[in-house]
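DM from R.C. (forwarded with permission)

"hey, sorry to bug you on a friday — could you get me a structure for this? deadline for the figure draft is monday and I only need the backbone to look sensible"
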Amino acid sequence: MRILVVGAGAVGGYFGGRLAHAGRDVTFLVRAGRAEELRRAGLVIKSARGDLTLRDVKTILATDPAEPFDLVLLSCKAYNLDDAIASFEPFVGPSTRILPLLNGMRHIDVLTQKFGTQHVLGGQCVIAATLNREREIVHLNELHALTFGELDGGPSERVSAIDAVLSGAGFDAMTSDTILLRMWEKWVFLATLAASTCLFRGSIGAILSTPDGRRVIEGLLGECRAVAQHNGFMMGPEFDSRATQTLFTPSPLTASMLRDVENHARTEADHILGDLIQRGGVAQQRDAGLSLLRIAYSHLKAYEARQAGAA
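My reply, with the result:
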């Protein structure tokens, strides 16, 4: 199976690098500058799960000719989705499958409208990784899981074929017969974490140390869950247990969106919070002007406006 990994950043570079190291046929679709970096220094992963340096990494530019790939692994930032689609569209053929690892749900709508539902799978990943100054991929903890499945649920031959390729490649690869529910669960959790840590400009531990911090997190979680339920996705006891353990236990945990704010970088506020609000739900329809989720989103939009003014 020929795999095209769109980009060689923290997420795509990590999973693609592990796959290439395991002997899978992987090509990275990158810009000319990143291609030169990989040619010069290789693809470097620093991880508690094992460091890795790959030499002679296979790369391709959007303008290069190539046969269609069997699998496209897509892990760009949500605000770069349109540019990413334009770059890999020439490499999509009749049997190509697209496995996106973005957060939220808007990208599924965009991809299925562009390529058709027959080409798109549901997917998500759990990993904390970043690029350091040397452009090395730094894995920040030990979690490195990738879950995928058919958008309409259930098993399929193509999911089994992809599972056979992704399994045993140095990270946790799992299939799911209910991938859309899994994606909504992650979205609800991530939106709660991003909204609370950005609003307070602090970690979960710092928020819980304040007089009303726990109540704010509870309120945000409830609003996000209400949106999911409005869209037909009910969070179960297993989600409740994981969310409670993570969101209400003091820890240094923050959302990557807060790190973006602290680094004066662009955020995915529109895609993680804004799109959630647009999809409605009881919590957003009732007294929407005082919704905690809307307040957190407005807080981030004010940050964006301030950044635009500074630029």
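R.C.: lifesaver. The chain has 13 helices and ten strands.
me: no worries. The mean pLDDT is 94.
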